[in-house]
Fold this protein.
Amino acid sequence: MSTIEEEFIATVSHELRTPLTSIRGFSQTLLNSWDRIKDDDKKKFIGIIEEQSNRLIHLVENILSVSKMNSGNQIFTEVNINNSIKKVIPIIENQYKTHRFKTELMPNLPTAFLDEDKFQQIMTNLIDNAAKYSEEGKTVTITTEIFENNICIKVKDEGVGIKEEDYDKLFKKFSRLENHLTSKTQGNGLGLYITKELVEKMNGKISFSSSANGTVFEVKFPLYNQEDALKCFQMS
Ligand SMILES: Nc1ncnc2c1ncn2[C@@H]1O[C@H](COP(=O)(O)OP(=O)(O)O)[C@@H](O)[C@H]1O
Ligand SMILES: [Mg+2]
């Protein structure tokens, strides 16, 4: 096993143990002292158990993505990026009821040659972050366009922004940055690590720019069919 894998397992074990210990602790307290605990507290403890279970589910899903990602099987097909984005948004919308999700999708965007599941995972991670790291009621805007022989997808938020000194930590495994929303929200710091790996495995590039007014993440995939691109410009 490589040092990187060993490090990964060590971190994962720690990340798994924390919520599990908390679930076990609160379950034991409830079981052993049921009659002595006030109803309000019971509710609070069960709430914690639910929250920690959700944390575990996310973590396990992310860890599975990391291992699937490294196993290397990808199914490339022609993907209609706009449609794929339209499928992802309602799922996230459902979790962030007060945010607004806006799209500015280029009509007749050429298809891209991608693994659609993985593309959706990329979009889910970016749109989820955009909502998670901005206050309630803010707008998340997803745009698609062609620029210099690339299909460009942008996810823009009006959130807390990313400080310059944190730029190099952003895409690292298990790294969550310090801001007032990170401490209030759940996450395991794997999302952007997975996202970058997936983008690069599909020959894409990911970049971002950020200010105190918000952040834009941009994902680019090269056009694989120049004729399609020309057609697209003629039609729009
Ligand atoms: N759109 C964003 N605006 C501000 N901060 C962000 C944004 N996306 C990610 N971050 C910061 O980068 C960290 C890593 O993101 P990610 O890998 O998706 O982990 P997670 O969302 O699980 O914390 C987050 O914890 C957050 O602090
Ligand atoms: Mg995330």
Notes: The pocket of magnesium ion (ligand 2) is lined by residues 125, 128-129, 187, 191 (CB under 6 Å). The helical segments are 3-33, 39-71, 81-93, 116-132, 180-184, 191-201, 226-235.
